[in-house]
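Moderator note: this is an archived Q&A kept for reference. The question asked for a predicted structure of one protein chain; the sequence and the answer are reproduced below.
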Amino acid sequence: MSEAAKLQKDAMRMLKLTSRTFYIPIKLLKPTLKDTVGSAYLCMRAIDEMEDHETLNKETKSYLLRETSNLLANNFDEEAYQRLVKPYQDDLPEVTLRLGDWIKVCPTEIVDKVKESTSIMAKGMADWVEKDWHIQTKEDLDDYTYYVAGLVGVMLSDIWNWYDGTETDRELAIGYGRGLQAVNILRNQHEDDERGVQFIPDGWTRDDVFAYATKNLSLADEYMKSIDNRNILLFCKIPLALAHKTLKAMRNGKEKMSRQEVESTVDSILNE
């Protein structure tokens, strides 16, 4: 097996370890898209683990995110990145320590776009780390959800366009990402409260967050209408269907969907 093939296989192993939601739709993509979207997901997961780390202090998180952003914005220097993370190698997970490997998996024609989007995300995350994620207004929530999720939608739109010329509306793509993130905020609200983090604007009730999620998921539904490529459509449908159903489950008083409900939802999409 070639070095590239080993790395591709390892990337899929890491995807399975780090994302139950995205592993299945990424695995279903055709080879070029699978490598591209898999690489993009792992790059963004690498920096997400810096932002979400349970024991690193605020200053360290901000430093790591800003320095990584700078490296990604330039001609990513793998040796410089390894020097950056080495003092924290016992704290950071494998997906973060191996950011350079995930970049190598991405096709050369689109890798600069993936690095650019990940760089912007890392800088935005650093800004919110420094603010202690204190979201006071809807504008704050829009800003936060743009950097951690809406930007993913924009980057995917760039990938679809590069792959086969698929044109999608960037604002709807941002809504897609925001909708998924809003569902996550609702699902994790209790855990976030316990660790002293508040992603809900001042004065908002849980119902207000449900309305925010519903509005953005409706933009995601609109986003789907401009996609003709069945392989891309399949990829987009699965996380969106799971988000809609998770929202419904929470409205009905459940914490989340059961594993059986997840599996039956995915099966029904695959059999359409």
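Archived answer notes: The mean pLDDT is 93.
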